[in-house]
Amino acid sequence: QVSLVESGGGLVQTGGSLRLTCSASGRLPGTRVMAWFRQATGKEREFVAAITWRMRNTNYADSVKGRFTISRDYLRDTVALQMDSLRPEDTAVYYCALREGTIPKSLANEYMSWGQGTQVTVSS
Question: What pLDDT does residue 106 have?
Answer without folding.
Answer: 97
